[in-house]
């Protein structure tokens, strides 16, 4: 009888473990698997974002995402999404054909063999009555898709290109022209004359050999709205370029002992974002972080730079010995935050060969 009882318990335990293994799996839940994007301007690419969460109890891995046509570029997480965490899949549609469209993405995961299908639909038009969504910067006779341009992680010798899109709201033609271009920027206007209700592009090329210094190079250029136009805050376009220092011929032995920069907040390592709370009764808020060198050689912070006037910073010491630390003080102005064209960010350029650029986004509550 005892033998039978033990056997029975073993069977029950085995069945319970089997059920547990079956239930232990990832589960992908997409917030909005079918999206309507409305009207899109012809040849004005648009990105659709699908947010999902792993509501299972095992890591979720996306192995591949297949778009329904070559007119779509997709991006998705290449790493496993832990249980309870979220991720995004983006699809950029080139809007190369006029008319209504319906597009799908086949998402292959470790949940099941069959793919999960996501879709988006809309209509591509030559011109639209409402430009607010795609062209939020209103200069009166023309609208821009942005007034902040960034060339990020540039190496000496690179010539990256960024496109600025211009919608002509005039009753006649418009000839775009940028003013105060620095020598390290060149502009190409496509087309040179933009017809009424049409969209043109300004292609800005960065000539990195002519940048002044490592780290942040920032300038303002201005789009002329009409012949004889003057520069002002309204037609200002801020251009930022981050030039990385070069670390050539670095041996594995030297890399092993090289300086390494780490930012901490109350002994907790800081990622690429921090949040600060702005007191409604005060116009300023201050945040203090520790900058630590976990390497075996002297860490030198060559540049400490901010991306707008809303933030000021001070660093206790630019030369930090091995396993030493210094204070980084960040001060934000509420008044300037309201006028800034972009969010507050901090850039540190150091002699850490594995992380020459340290970027910190400041989220203000």
**Shape, principal axes of CA atoms:** globular
Distance between the termini: 68 Å
| C-alpha-based Rg, rounded | 26 Å
| Spatial order of strands in the largest sheet | 9-10-12-15-14
What is the overall pLDDT average? 87
Q: What order do the helices and strands follow? A: HEEEEEEEEEEEEEEEEEHEEEEEEEEHEE
Helix content: under 10%
Number of strands: 27
Number of helices: 3
Q: What is the strand and helix layout of this fold?
A:
Layout: H1 2-23, E1 28-30, E2 34-41, E3 46-54, E4 62-67, E5 72-75, E6 86-93, E7 99-109, E8 116-125, E9 137-138, E10 142-144, E11 148-154, E12 161-168, E13 178-179, E14 185-190, E15 199-206, E16 215-223, E17 236-243, H2 252-257, E18 261-265, E19 268-269, E20 273-276, E21 284-293, E22 299-306, E23 311-315, E24 319-320, E25 325-333, H3 334-339, E26 345-350, E27 357-364
Parallel strand pairs: 2-8, 11-17, 20-27
Antiparallel strand pairs: 1-3, 3-6, 4-7, 5-6, 7-8, 9-10, 10-12, 12-15, 13-16, 14-15, 16-17, 18-19, 18-21, 21-25, 22-24, 22-26, 23-25, 26-27
